[in-house]
Amino acid sequence: MKSLRARLLLTLGSLLLLAVLAALVAMDFRFQELSRAARREVLQALNLAVLGVVDEDPEGRLRPTSALAEPRLETPRSGLYALIRPRFDAPSWRSGSLTSTGVLLDLDAAPGRRQLSVVRQPDGTRLLAFAQGVSWSTLNGQRRDYVFIMAEDQAPYARQLHDLRGQFLLGGALMLLVATLVIATAVGIVLHPLRRMERQIAEVEVGERARLEGDWPRELRGVGKNLNALLQAERERAERYRQTLGNLAHSLKTPLSVLRTILSQPVPTASEVAEQVERMQDIVQHQLRRASTGSLSPGVAWTPVLSVLDDVLSALRKVYAERLLQLEVTGPDGSAPDATLTCPMDRGDLLELVGNLADNACKFARRRVEITLLPWVQVGWRRPGFELRVDDDGPGVAMAQREHVLERGTRLDERVPGQGIGLSMVAGIVAGQSGQVEVTSSPLGGARFIVRLPGR
Q: Are 46 and 12 in contact (CB under 8 A)?
């Protein structure tokens, strides 16, 4: 059975049925006990009434001397019978109701003892009989033991019990029906949050809803929270893979352009081709590792910044060789850059950071791109960080656009090839390293991108 609702209804219905049946059995048993006790009291009272009006006749037999208070004792086959007999002897008196009945009442009771029993007759009739032993003092001064017997046919009682059982069963069935409806309603109310959650999950599956919403019961609150976390993780994973594919395509553009330039030469250099192929392989491995871990590579190795700058500019000089751009790297106040500056970052991440900034500057520059490498020192750092300034003499970035230029997919000039991915990659890498990125105006007349990455 796959339905939780059906399981609950079946379980609760079974328990309810057992409870009702147990209640009916208990009520039936209790009714029989009370009825038997009541009939015993009646028979005992009638027996005492007969005992109060009996006396010894001239023949020495006990028999009522006046009319009995219960007329059924004088009505033949009335179902109420009385008998007096000496103990271990033939009856001395029989009520008129015993006439032509063939009822046998061979009960015995010692003087002072009382006995209630069911007597089955030859025709199958069942009588409830009460026998009381009495020691009687005769007229000649002797004592003689008698047994006073009062019996009642059980057929009327059996009919009443049958009717009552029918009423019990009918009442039990009605009670079971009402209780089942109540339980079904209660189960529906209890399972309503589950059905609501099921509907929302179905809406999530078809894309109509992004997450589960609503005030869930305490028992489902954790499930809803975990499902939302799972959905969020899946969305982030899908977005990360999508961005990784875009980043991969974007990162491969530069080495592919370098390869195109090398292969266009009359005699391509095999070492240069191998270098670019190896770089492409490193880029692919780097992006796949980032896609699987969901984060930047841990900065356990300190990468020399100047060597990465040299590699990037070497590749860009080949890509933009036809434009005759001036690409140079300087240190503070135009001096030589500090070759000892390192960064606690994976080389692949640093290549993406510097490469995208420099490539963006080359796209918009007219003649010149200048990269300035400066140390960044703060109190408490054992090693300095660095500040990287990338200037170009292009059109620059308007003040209103500087807040959006680092967003993914943003392109300021549709005439310039690109997908608006490179600068967003820069922003992501800088954020992952707890750094800062700023867009200002360059002294060269174009844009200046400033990146500060902390030391440790």
A: no
The residue extents of the domains of the chain are 4-160, 296-453
31: left (phi over 0), alpha (psi -120 to 50) or beta: alpha
**pLDDT (mean) for 331-342:** 88
Alpha carbons 152 and 290: distance in angstroms, whole number: 98
What's the pLDDT at 267? Answer: 66
Give Dmax over CA atoms of the chain in angstroms. Answer: 161
**In which element (H, E) is residue 110 found?**
none
Cα separation, 198 vs 176, whole angstroms:
31
Concatenated DSSP letters for 63-87?
Answer: EESS--S-GGGGSTT-SEEEEEEET
Distance between CA atoms of residues 310 and 155, nearest Å: 116
- Taking phi over 0 as left and psi of -120 to 50 as alpha, with beta for the rest, 78 belongs to alpha
- pLDDT tens profile 243-298: 666 666 666 766 777 777 777 777 667 777 777 777 777 767 666 666 655 545 44
Angstrom distance (rounded) from CA 238 to CA 39: 84
Residues 6+ apart with CB under 8 A from 429: 296, 349, 352, 353
CATH class, domain 296-453, is alpha beta
Instruction: Centre a 10 Å sphere on the Cβ of residue 419 and count the other Cβ atoms it contains.
Output: 13
Q: Rounded to the nearest 10 degrees, how much is the dihedral formed by the CA atoms of 287, 290, 292, 298?
A: 140
pTM of the model: 0.46
CATH class of the domain at 4-160: alpha beta
Whole-angstrom distance, CA of residue 70 vs CA of residue 47:
11
Task: Say how far apart CA 25 and CA 183 lie, in whole Å.
Answer: 23
In the three-class reduction of DSSP (H, G, I as helix; E, B as strand; rest coil), residue 246 is classed as helix
Q: Do domains 4-160 and 296-453 have the same CATH topology?
A: no
Strand segments, DSSP code E, in 143-268 are 143-153
Q: Which helix (H) or strand (E) holds 372?
A: strand 368-376
